[in-house]
Design goal:
The longest helix is centred in the first third of the chain and has 24 residues. Helices cover 66% and strands 0% of the residues. The chain is mainly alpha-helical. The protein has 3 domains: 109 residues; 147 residues, Alpha Horseshoe (Serine Threonine Protein Phosphatase 5, Tetratricopeptide repeat); 123 residues, Serine Threonine Protein Phosphatase 5, Tetratricopeptide repeat, CATH 1.25.40.10.
Length: 485
């Protein structure tokens, strides 16, 4: 109640500042025209005195008198047009009602008067925010890993996991130290060095510092086609005021990228920006290599990818942690990777990595969703729908029907490549569960011819074929895979 009264009082005081001039009326002030009139009249009197003294003749004075009188009349008209604000209580009241009513109507239309207030501490986090409960748990897991490293400072994989986790959390100073410890202990592959160098760029708010530039040059010394290294060295030239050299570096990067790489559009835009800075026309972009089944190796040239999701080495390094700590750390890294993928939906490798990470966490729905987004980027890559189908088969029990979505995916695979073992096995299994023994026999017989004689997979397929007498529906152990899958 008190708050409502204070708000009403403030609104009244604000409106009073508008209404007071209307209630008081305007104060009479000297107009510019009045001063002009006084000057012109004085000039007429001065002209009469000049005639009396014989300084000018009557004929000469007449033309001057006419000009002064013309100006005097113009000043009279200006004064007549000048208006003064008069006292008007009715107008003041109308203005106050209009302003107050308009404010209330606007609030009712755009505001939420019925929404109850919630203390800040009780407000839930934004649903789209990646750093929620998982990140808090991840922070606790990271600190537990830090204590373990104090007890075992020679744990190279542990230091690398620690560095990547800190980078994911944005703690770049500690991440820098952890990367150096990991590299001292032999974790100094080109990939790790590139991750470290890219972290240095993020630490400097996107500036390629001399230390980062030197680190990227070391990366290229061992891996000349490293995407991140070539990109950031070109960016360094741009930041140093050398746009032409930046264009050379970016064009060289485009030359080694596949023609269907989603990175080409971004790099092309930066070539155009560098050309504009250099004051030259944007050059034709290098065409690059032909389409490849997989995206070029190396970190994509964008800072959003500097903190990747957990790799197999990261998960192995976390094996000595408690189950809850390990899961919290992995979930935190996966949550950050998911947020970065939403910001960069054209990153095929990122979606594949996210799909595999969710599979490790046994979140089949999110894993399949990530693989589906990767499949949309590369519809001809048959390994993607196979991975999606494999995830959807998680938890399959003998006697269960093969999910319809799995059948749809693998039917598409078999249409493009009839000899894919994964598709032959599960499509045969689906047919057998539907009582279509002829279709199951056709699929499994084709699969049998692809498998080495005497292999365990071939024996399993032969056993499955033996259960297909006539049209009888078999009972199969369908949870396995074939072809070494």
């Amino acid at each position: 109640m008190i708050q409502a009264f204070l708000l009403a009082l403030l609104a009244f005081l604000a409106l009073l500042g508008v209404a007071l001039p209307l209630l008081r009326g305007g104060r009479p002030v000297a107009e510019r025209a009045a001063f002009d009139q006084a000057v012109y009249r004085d000039q007429l009197r001065e002209l009469d005195r000049d005639i009396e003294r014989g300084l000018v003749t009557a004929e000469e004075a007449e033309s001057s008198r006419l000009e002064i009188q013309r100006r005097l009349l113009a000043a009279d008209r200006r004064q007549a047009r000048a208006a003064r604000l008069s006292r008007s209580p009715v107008l003041a009241g109308a203005v106050m009602v209009f302003v107050a009513g308009g404010a209330i109507a606007t609030y009712l239309a755009l505001g939420s008067p019925g929404l109850p207030d919630v203390p800040f501490a009780g407000r839930p986090p934004q649903q789209a925010e990646a750093h929620g409960e998982d990140t808090a748990q991840m922070r606790n897991a990271v600190e537990a890993l830090a204590k373990r490293l104090q007890q075992n400072p020679n744990d190279g994989p542990g230091w690398l996991l620690f560095a990547r986790s800190l980078s994911t959390m944005g703690d770049y100073d500690r991440a820098e130290m952890a990367y150096r410890e990991a590299m001292k202990l032999g974790r100094d592959s080109a990939e790790v060095q590139a991750d470290h160098a890219e972290m240095l760029v993020m630490q400097a708010n996107g500036i390629v510092t001399p230390a980062a530039e030197e680190a990227f040059r070391k990366v290229l010394a061992t891996d000349p086609d490293n995407i991140a290294g070539r990109y950031y060295l070109a960016l360094a030239r741009m930041q140093a005021g050398e746009p032409k050299r930046a264009i050379e570096g970016l064009q060289g990067l485009l030359a080694i990228l596949p023609s269907d790489s989603p990175l080409r559009e971004q790099i092309g835009a930066q070539v155009a920006e560098a050309a504009k800075a250099a004051g030259i026309p944007a050059p034709p972009l290098e065409k690059g290599t032909g389409p490849a089944p997989k995206q070029a190796a190396g970190a994509p040239p964008t800072q959003k990818n500097a903190a990747p999701g957990p790799s197999a080495a990261d998960m192995a390094a976390a094996s000595e942690m408690s189950e809850n700590q390990r899961e919290a750390m992995i979930r935190g890294m996966v949550a950050n990777l998911a947020a970065k993928q939403e910001a960069e939906p054209g990153n095929f490798d990122g979606w594949m990595r996210l799909g595999r990470a969710y599979a490790v966490l046994k979140d089949s729905a999110k894993s399949a969703e990530a693989f589906a987004k990767a499949r949309a980027l590369r519809p001809d890559d048959l390994s993607v729908p196979e991975a999606e189908a494999q995830v959807l088969m998680t938890g399959y029990k003998p006697g269960d029907k093969v999910p319809t979505r799995v059948v749809e995916l693998l039917t598409q695979v078999a249409a493009k490549d009839p000899n894919r073992p994964e598709a032959l096995w599960y499509l045969g299994l689906a047919a057998s569960m539907d009582g279509n023994a002829a279709e199951a026999r056709r699929r499994w017989t084709a699969l049998k011819t692809l498998l080495p004689a005497g292999s365990e997979d071939r024996k399993m397929v032969e056993a499955a074929l033996a259960t297909l007498p006539g049209d009888a529906a078999p009972t199969l152990q369908g949870g396995g895979t074939t072809g070494g899958k």
